[in-house]
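User: Okay, second chain of the day. Same drill as before: sequence in, structure tokens out.
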Amino acid sequence: MHTLRIVCLGAGLVLARAVAQTAGADAGEAFYESTVRPILRTNCYACHTDKNVNSGLSVESRESLLKGGNRGAVVEPGAPEKSLLIRALRHEGDVKMPPGKKLDEAKIAAVEQWVKDGMRMPAKYHKAKRQGADHWAFQAPKRAPLPEVKNAQWARNAIDRWVLAKIEAVNLTPSPEADKATLLRRVSLDLTGLPPTREELNAFLADARPDAYERVVDRLLASPHFGERWARDWLDMARYADTDGYTIDAPRDMWPYRDWVIHAMNADMPFDRFVIEQFAGDLLPNATRDQIIATGFHRNTPSNYEGGIDFEQYRVEAVADRVNTTGAVFLGLTMGCARCHDHKYDPVSQREYYQMFAFLNNVDEIDKEADRKYFNRPFLDIGTEEQVAKYNEWEEQVKDLEDKINIYIGQFVGDAEKDEKLKAMRKEASALRRKKPPVVRALVMRDRAEPRQSYIHLGGDFLRKGATVEPGVPAAGLMP
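Assistant: Same drill. Structure tokens below.
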């Protein structure tokens, strides 16, 4: 009996504590609704809401307040003395809000007390309102029932039903089925990009089997030309190029990635695997050579190795290109808008842009200590061990000779007698380059050992670092 009383007493204390906490929370929420929110709405909402985010700051929700703006965090729950918001309201320091006349002391004290009490507010104000998040493009698709049609026997599949419904809606009828020669030409061009040969045409015309067309489709899908034809669309999205771009536009070994895409198409690789290997093939357990080559997807960026450039600027440009490509290819979004400010139309904030940026910010592409022709890293040597060893030896010979030429030019420019020697040295270098061993250096992704710290770039300027960010994805249901 004594034990039971102790248990009941303990339970009562726990319940009382829970009730007290709930009552306190309710009081805090009521205080926000009745006192604090009207102050913020009247004095701050004109410039700092989830729809009108000046200086990257919204005060409309708990999430946006904790996120802060271009100056970083603005409020620390429980610590008003550490909160930029309170200092700004008191017009202390260089940030004075609202501009002009300072708020009454009673209003400032109310906001200060609210921060001190932990910034309690009703749940409906916890999450930021994401402009455009309710757009149909961000909703999970639902299978619609097939439309009713009059000529149902014409439809051979569900897609035919939808096409027929539109045709019947304007009182038209489907065209007659194409003759066999036309059908073969169309499917051949669709699947391989090549017209059928005369032999293929004659064979199809002579094939009276009911599944003759299906056999043609199977043959075309098994053709290596199928992968060559359909890889082009993906390579366009991957911004595939065999040269670096910019002024020099030097050639580079990107064709191993191109061939990987072709082989993946021909092997009917599942799409999830197709994406994973391109994003993180090097991080897979016991990654194969082909899986590492697949990461060339994000090495198709333009690369600038001109003299006098800021290496970090163009490294950042390459990372931004990867973020923008990821958004366009996989999310159907122009993510680049959020590089400088919160997206005006789509639910992507500037912070979320740089969280995506942080995922892709850990590749060492430029070896500043190397000669300009040799710092396009990381790469994967494709060849035998002996070929790779000979390639490395050849590369050192070329580099040493070019260093000698550069030193010589600096010492003897304008001396006619020495110019003959310079011509001979350049001729020797040219002959040496033509002896390049048969090794391919495929450009790939490889993370550095120590991750970089990523920041929001204020106004998109990599020299103006804002708040730090960690890797993350947009929160508006854009990714599973």
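The chain has 16 helices and four strands.

User: Thanks, on to the next one.
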